[in-house]
Amino acid sequence: MLGLIAALLVATGVQRSWLVRAAVYLCGCALLVLVAVVAGTAYYNATDCESGDSDCLSLLGGMVWGVFSLPVAAVAIVVIEVVLQRRRKRVRQG
Fold first, then answer.
1. Which one, 22, 56, 62, 89, has least CB within 10 Å?
2. How far apart are CA 33 and CA 62, in angstroms?
């Protein structure tokens, strides 16, 4: 769904660049959280749920990984925006 929205924004060409970046950041964050949940769940399945317990909470561990991936995404977005802002400032100055 988010990918379709981003493709629509890029295809129309009538939007501002910040709107495209926001859509890309949103899609990237959603993908990062999904990958973290799947990786965390697989990790806990392999390490803690080897005996085949029916009450294994590996999905909960994966969700914790997903929650912890959100600050990582926020830091990455801030770094990207700072770099872009400095690059734009440098181009304007000379």
1. 89
2. 10
Residue 50 per-residue DSSP state? T
Distances (CA, A) of 1 to 5, 30, 72, 78, 92: 6, 11, 23, 24, 37
Cβ-contact 48, 56 below 8 angstroms: yes
**Residue 76 is which amino acid?**
A
φ and ψ at residue 6, rounded to 5 degrees: -65, -40
Q: How many whole angstroms separate alpha carbon 61 and alpha carbon 30?
A: 18
